[in-house]
Design brief:
By secondary structure, this protein is mainly alpha-helical. Helix content is 77%, strand content 1%.
Length: 287
């Protein structure tokens, strides 16, 4: 009876809890490759999870606060503010659940997404190649040495993604997994080396150029994680010796959000959520 009474007396709390449960379950199902059929270009599981996320967001916008402010009751305002704060916290928890732009993705759709990122990645690498000319003479060799492998890494990743798109086999996926970790480590190493550049102007140029490549590599890592088994992700993370925590201070979230929003043609707010969730998933996996 207490359970029923709590649900009756706290409908928003109960609804938010239900939405979080649905999002959690659909995230697990997606990671296990369970789709429950297709819905448009996605899956039923992904659709249900997205709807639950949207409903939780609506719950977080508590309309009671406005009416309570009109009533002038201090106690009601405090209660409404507390409810709104709790719902906002639940919404934040939901944002830390499986990635919105990879939920329910198949191996082929991930491979296609990686291929679609290729022009942006090659453009970012070209920016890195031209950045050395902007640096102080003493700093340019350090930057060039730190980023020398970017061209080969981006070309190899593109070739492997296209191979996986044509033949989504475990063997080709393993190659993708290995290459994305290698590229990620090159980017992390380059960030640490660029951070040691003494000239502030040179350092700013260097970090900005590397960030452009790093944002795309992190996005591709999240995509590949989404179609990899837990064992494979653990193996990938074990090969990652330079961790996110070591380079976090040199990553520019604003720049990352701008790149993701531009690529997917979506609102900045949604891109910000995606970037945050990708970073959270990266850290949780041990990268």
């Amino acid at each position: 009876m207490n359970l029923i009474s709590n649900i009756w007396n706290h409908p928003k709390t109960s609804s938010a809890g239900l939405m979080i449960a649905i999002i959690s379950i659909t995230g697990v199902l997606s990671q296990q490759g369970i789709t429950l059929g297709t819905a448009g270009t996605g899956t039923v599981v992904a659709l249900v999870g997205s709807l639950a996320t949207a409903l939780l967001g609506l719950l977080a916008k508590d309309p009671e606060v406005a009416s309570q402010q009109v009533s002038g009751s201090a106690n009601q305002r405090a209660g409404g503010a507390n409810t709104s704060a709790k719902l906002g916290a639940w919404a934040l928890i939901a944002l830390l659940l499986p990635l919105l732009f990879v939920s329910g993705c198949s191996g082929k759709s991930v491979a296609q997404d990686i291929v679609n990122w290729t022009p942006a990645l090659q453009s970012a690498v070209a920016t890195v190649d031209s950045t050395a000319a902007l640096l102080a003479p003493v700093d340019a060799p350090i930057f060039v040495a730190a980023t020398v492998g970017f061209d080969a890494a981006s070309n190899l990743l593109d070739a492997q993604a296209k191979a996986y798109l044509a033949n989504p086999s475990a063997g080709v996926l393993a190659q993708l997994q290995s290459q994305i970790v290698t590229f990620q480590q090159q980017v992390n190493s380059a960030l640490l080396q660029a951070a040691r550049i003494a000239d502030s102007a040179s350092q700013t140029h260097a970090l900005a150029a590397i960030q452009g490549v790093g944002t795309i590599v992190s996005t591709l890592l999240a995509l590949i994680q989404s179609v990899s088994s837990k064992v494979a992700v653990a193996e990938m993370a074990s090969q990652s010796t330079i961790k996110l925590a070591q380079v976090r201070a040199y990553r520019n979230d604003g720049k990352a959000v701008e790149i993701v929003a531009g690529h997917y043609g979506e609102p900045v707010g949604l891109a910000r959520i995606q970037v945050a969730r990708a970073e959270y998933g990266e850290a949780q996996a041990g990268f």
